[in-house]
Design brief:
Length: about 400
C-alpha cells in the first residue's frame, strides 16, 4: 500500500475496505492547513453521499483528551487538585479494594484494601488501578459474577465501572475508565453535566457548536452523523469500535472515556488550541504540564510492561517499540524524537480502532485522522495501516509545503 494519504486511502475505498475518511492537520499559526474529506458516507436509507469535513464522527476514546481538559479546568478553578485525595468527592472510588484473584474453588474474590488514596493524576494517566475489565481476566470474572449486565439495560459510570481495582493505586499502569470517573467528578464539583461543562468551557471558547454525547439526539447533527447507517441504525459507533457498539448501547449519561460525537473539523480546533497554547482552554503552565511524564517509577515500569506486552501494539498508538515513551495528561507521550516524524514530548492517542490524533509541539504540528471502516467485514490490518500512513504522511506533506513556501519567497 502506498505511503501517500490520497493514494492509499482511495485504494482502500475502491477495494471496499473503508467507506471514507476525514483528516485535519495544522500548525500553531494556521499557515499550514491540510483538510481532506475522502470517499463517501452511507445514509440510513442506503444512499451514498460525499464525505464532508463537518460530518459528525464518533470519537470513542478520543473523548478522553477533552475530559482531561475539563478536569484540569476544575484544578485551575480550585475545585480539585491533581495529587490530592479524592475521597471527599468520590467516596465510591476511595472505597474500592484491589482484586488479587479468587479462592481455590473460584467462587470467593480475594480483596486487599487500598494502600494509598487515588488521585486525579492517577485517573488521568491510567495508574489508579481502575482498568477496563476486558483487559484483566479476573476483573472480567468478578464483573460476570457480581455485576452482570442485563441485555437491554443502561448504566451510569458508577454502576458500569463498580468493580474492584486491578492493582494498588499508583503502582502500575493499565488502560481503563479513569477518564469516565474523572468526568463524573467534574460533574459532582461543578453541578453540571460533563456535556454542559464541555460546551461552556471548551466548545464555546473555540466556537464549536456540533458536539453531543451519546445518544446524539439533535436532528441537525443526526443529518451529518457518519455512524447512522444501515450497519449502525442506532448510531452506536460500531464501525469505530470494530463492529461492536456495546459501550454506547449500555451507557447512560456523559461518559468522559468514550461517549462524545463531534466533527474532525472541530476536534482539530481543540488540538490546535493546545499546540498554540493560546490560553483559551487552560493556562499556559497547565498545558505545559500536560506534556510532562506523569507516572512515578512503579507506574512507569507497569506502563513499559504493558507497552511490550500483547496489547502493546494498541497502547503504543503507532510509535515504534524502540522509542522511549511515557504518559502525559491526555495520552501517550514520546520521550525522544523520531527523525522526520514525532518530536520529543509529542502527545498522542486515538479512538476505537479507527481514529488517531497527535500534538507535536517540537515540530509545531497537530492532526486528527478518522478512518471510516466498512462493515460488516472490518479489516483491522488495513485500518491500522491507514492510520499510520496518516500519522507519517502528514509530516511529509508539511515538509513539501515548506519547500514550496521557500521557493516562492526565494
Amino acid at each position: 500500500m502506498a505511503d501517500d494519504i490520497e493514494i492509499s486511502f482511495h485504494k482502500a475505498i475502491d477495494d471496499g475496505k473503508i467507506n471514507g475518511a476525514v483528516i485535519c492537520a495544522t500548525d500553531a499559526d494556521g499557515h499550514f492547513v491540510y483538510d481532506k474529506a475522502l470517499g463517501e458516507r452511507i445514509l440510513l436509507s442506503g444512499e451514498k453521499i460525499p464525505q464532508r469535513l463537518d460530518d459528525v464522527l464518533y470519537l470513542a476514546s478520543a473523548t478522553k483528551l477533552i475530559a482531561t481538559i475539563a478536569a484540569l479546568q476544575c484544578v485551575e478553578d480550585g475545585l480539585l487538585t491533581l495529587t490530592g485525595d479524592l475521597s471527599s468527592v468520590a467516596p465510591d472510588i476511595a472505597s474500592k479494594h484491589v482484586l488479587t484473584g479468587f479462592s481455590d474453588d473460584g467462587e470467593t474474590p480475594l480483596l486487599e484494601p487500598p494502600a494509598r488514596p487515588i488521585t486525579l493524576e492517577m485517573l488521568l494517566t491510567h495508574s489508579s488501578g481502575i482498568a477496563y475489565d476486558f483487559m484483566i481476566p479476573h476483573l472480567a470474572k468478578w464483573n460476570q459474577k457480581f455485576n452482570h449486565r442485563e441485555e437491554n439495560s443502561r448504566r451510569g459510570v458508577e454502576k458500569a465501572f463498580c468493580y474492584p481495582l486491578a492493582f494498588q493505586p499508583g503502582t502500575s499502569w493499565m488502560y481503563g475508565p479513569g477518564l469516565d470517573w474523572a468526568g463524573r467528578i467534574v460533574e459532582r464539583v461543578t453541578g453540571r453535566t460533563l456535556g454542559e461543562h464541555m460546551q461552556q468551557r471548551i466548545c464555546n471558547p473555540l466556537h464549536i457548536t456540533d458536539a453531543q454525547f451519546n445518544p446524539v439526539t439533535r436532528e441537525d447533527l443526526r443529518a451529518r452523523l457518519v455512524d447512522l447507517n444501515p450497519q449502525d441504525p442506532n448510531a452506536l459507533g460500531r464501525a469505530v469500535a470494530g463492529g461492536n457498539g456495546d459501550m454506547n448501547k449500555h451507557s447512560q449519561g456523559d461518559f468522559g472515556g468514550h461517549g462524545l460525537f463531534m466533527p474532525a473539523a472541530d476536534y482539530i480546533k481543540i488540538l490546535h488550541s493546545l499546540l498554540a497554547n493560546d490560553g483559551k482552554l487552560l493556562k499556559p503552565s497547565t498545558v505545559d504540564d500536560m506534556f510532562q511524564h506523569h507516572l512515578n517509577p512503579e507506574a512507569t515500569a507497569g506502563q513499559q510492561s504493558a507497552l511490550a506486552g500483547p496489547m502493546g501494539i494498541f497502547f503504543r498508538v503507532g510509535v515504534d517499540p524502540e522509542t522511549k515513551m511515557g504518559h502525559g495528561l491526555g495520552g501517550l507521550l514520546t520521550l525522544q524524537g523520531v527523525d522526520g516524524w514525532y518530536g520529543e514530548r509529542t502527545l498522542t492517542w486515538g479512538g476505537g480502532l479507527s481514529l488517531a490524533w497527535f500534538i507535536d509541539r517540537e515540530n509545531d504540528l497537530c492532526g486528527i485522522g478518522a478512518v471510516q471502516p466498512a462493515l460488516p467485514d472490518f479489516d483491522a490490518e488495513v485500518v491500522a495501516t491507514l492510520k499510520q500512513i496518516f500519522r507519517r504522511d502528514v509530516y511529509r506533506k508539511r515538509a513539501a509545503w515548506r519547500e514550496q513556501q521557500q521557493e516562492q519567497t526565494s
